[in-house]
Specification:
The chain is built from five helices and two strands. It has a two-stranded antiparallel sheet with strand order 1-2.
């Protein structure tokens, strides 16, 4: 963020500076906010879906079209991928570890429910999804940097 000298107060010099956001920085903040909202909504959906009874209508409908492991892979991949788009790399890394921990804890919680069980293969699908999401995010970042330097790319 650039700094701009603040107008001097009456009787004082102009030694103060105040931060001024550029249009690009404001756009980046809006994008981050939108992606964080989408990420939080996806987390909520994964938590609810993980703790619903296995015989619930939503799980039965989804299960007709997708394998349980594919759902785990795609959900956790998406949760790992979203922060890679516009967050700092350290924030995205913490997010990926947090998502992986959430997946493990949800699997443990399923073991405490009457009609669901802890499934190590579900957790393995979660981990594979996180790894795939991070890998895809790193690729998207590299393509974005190439595009920014006029060498083609994703955006």
């Amino acid at each position: 963020m650039r700094e701009r000298a603040a107008p001097p107060a009456e009787g004082q010099g102009s030694g103060r500076t105040t931060p001024v956001a550029t249009a690009d920085e404001a756009s980046l903040r809006r994008q981050r906010l939108a992606l964080r909202g989408l990420w939080a909504a996806t987390c909520a959906g994964v938590i609810v879906g993980s703790l619903l009874p296995a015989t619930s209508t939503p799980l039965e409908l989804i299960g007709e079209y997708l394998s349980d492991k594919v759902i785990h892979l795609l959900s956790y991949g998406w949760l790992a991928f979203l922060p890679m788009l516009r967050e700092k790399r350290s924030t995205a890394a913490v997010s990926a570890v947090g998502v992986l921990a959430m997946g493990f804890l949800l699997e443990l919680a399923q073991g405490l429910t009457p009609d669901r069980d802890f499934d190590m293969y579900d957790f393995a699908a979660n981990a594979a999804g996180v790894a795939g999401g991070v890998g895809l995010g790193l690729s998207a970042q590299a393509l974005g940097r190439r595009s920014a330097h006029g060498r083609g790319g994703l955006w």
